[in-house]
């Protein structure tokens, strides 16, 4: 079968794009999901994709809340995600993160990483999380338009993805908040995505991840690939490559990533998971026919 892989077209997906160029749609095809993890989960649910490469926290929270549309099959990026806090291009009263208290924050979708990270920011600032207000704006374009028309004060998105918009004067960065967990996991539909096909995909992806993240590639070829594919400045690419970490084997997940993320106070405050520390069943979260626990 030809797997349908949902992804967000950002610099993180560079090894995936290199794998696609080699595969030439023979074993998988890429389906872009520009609205992010909320859209990826929706498409898994609606039989539009078979595998999603998506943010850790919404994937885990979705399963914890009862979704049976997917199970976790692997890891993609093991370092935290650096979220920028972004406001409109014009001078305003929003110049630091503390200035945002009580205002309306833009998010891509309910339950998205952009919403979860607003709770992370609020907890860091000691704001009452029950007072947070949100407006759904779908994607990066809608979020930028929203901070510029005044319907929201700010939004949060990955730093390097939005930096070109800031450099072009379309918006302003006023802070940053890293995730308190590894940033990307891989999920697959439990029946549509056959285990053999998923394992073969993860094997190929692992090979390209290791090549892209090798010291030799980080010193030159990977820098050039990201610059040419995404149009980022060389200094930004080097800064990102100096911090990002990929797994050696994409078919492995540390069990503590599941439990520590699931029990994190942020997801409980966000209402993404119930505040319980009962037994967590591996088979609820993981496709044990594919993934290896480490």
How would you characterize this protein structure?
The protein is α/β, with parallel strands linked by helices. The protein is 40% helix and 20% strand. It has 13 helices and twelve strands. It has helices spanning 14-23, 37-45, 56-64, 113-124, 140-149, 159-167, 195-213, 215-218, 221-230, 234-241, 255-262, 265-269, 282-285, and strands spanning 3-7, 28-32, 51-55, 71-77, 82-88, 104-107, 133-136, 154-158, 171-178, 184-188, 252-253, 292-293. The protein has a five-stranded mixed β-sheet with strand order 2-1-3-10-4, sandwiched between helices. Helix 4 (113-124) links the parallel strand 6 and strand 7. The radius of gyration is 19 Å and the shape is globular. The two termini are 29 Å apart. The model has no long low-confidence stretch (mean pLDDT 94).
Please describe the structure with a list of short key phrases separated by commas or semicolons.
single chain, about 290 residues, 12 strands, five-stranded mixed beta sheet, alpha/beta
| Derived structural class | alpha/beta
Number of strands: 12
Report the sheet-strand fraction.
Answer: 15-25%
With helices defined by DSSP (H or I, 4 residues minimum), what is the helix count?
A: 13
Largest sheet: 5 strands, mixed
Give a summary of the structure in a few sentences.
This protein has helices at residues 14-23, 37-45, 56-64, 113-124, 140-149, 159-167, 195-213, 215-218, 221-230, 234-241, 255-262, 265-269, 282-285; strands at residues 3-7, 28-32, 51-55, 71-77, 82-88, 104-107, 133-136, 154-158, 171-178, 184-188, 252-253, 292-293.
